[in-house]
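[job 4417] fold queue: 2 targets
>>> target A
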Amino acid sequence: MLDRHGIDHETADEIGDAISAGEFERAFDLVTEPMLEAFCVAGTPETVAERTEKLRESADSVVFASPLGPDIEAAIDLLGAVVDRQRR
């Protein structure tokens, strides 16, 4: 999966080691923009809708999980609106 997305194995290992050691700030600092693009969906509701639709082209399902944003209730409401729009 890392090769498919052009993610550096050494950096990924460093992130895993930092998480295992409970050094979450260090792990977060090591995450790169390409990693975010490859492994998460974030942005405006429109961006999330577009990226989710693209994922559905090659996946059986999409699961949204934590972290959802700084305001969890607002994030859930926004995500619900995106999912409702896609069902139509």
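>>> target B
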Amino acid sequence: MTDARCDRIPRTPDPAAQDSETGRGLLIVAAYAHRWGVDEAPAHAKTVWAELAPGRGGA
């Protein structure tokens, strides 16, 4: 995913508060991904990427 907001670079996610309406996206990515990271993109954007490990979370 690429977006134009480079002001907030994602880091290892902290658990979200139970009543929070946001903050769970990277927790889900980290649970299913073998690894993930962030690359700076042109024009002050960022790209968040993830690699899925075979056999994790599949149906």
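[job 4417] complete. Note on B: The chain has a mean pLDDT of 78.
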